[in-house]
Amino acid sequence: MIALNTWLLILAFAAPMIVSPGPGNTLLAASGSQFGLRRTVPFWMGFEAGNLVWCLVYGFGLSEVFTRNPAVYTALKWGGTAYIVYLAWCFFRSAGASERQKLRPLGFVDGFVSLSLNPKVHSMILVMYSQFLSPGLPLAAQVLQMAMVFVAVGLASHFAWIYGGQVLFSRAQSPRAIRLQGLAFGACMLVVAGVTALS
Description:
The protein has 7 helices and no strands. The chain is an all-alpha fold.
């Protein structure tokens, strides 16, 4: 079992990293604003499934691949940037829809893919394990416990981003407001892609 002081350190690390703005949280807020909480749930659950899968994969050894082969991380970074540009294009396309019901909400696979192509997530998980895994404790128990904390913090944080997006834009239902939201979110995603590419 991980010691209480280590739990608190993991929580103190994970909470601000997961809550802070980034490509994923921007997408969650945008989806919440465009489709509401209920229609965003599949995308959100894909996101959290990605968090769990990558926590387990890294915890049980993939971190060594990135440490030994920086080119793999670079490929992931550029793949993520390309996917963010694609999502920006989707938002720009949605700006042409006259009603929200004509738009297709992002689904489970979209959530999993967007999380998987987000370099910020991979960095967070790598740092978490490199800082908090203890060689004196059983690996499997530590990985599962840290993954649970990471996913639990993600669920709470991502709910706030989705709900915040829904509340902020719930009154903006006119065709003009929908168009402006699509343009604004598309522009945000292009900025995120630029920052991701340059980081």
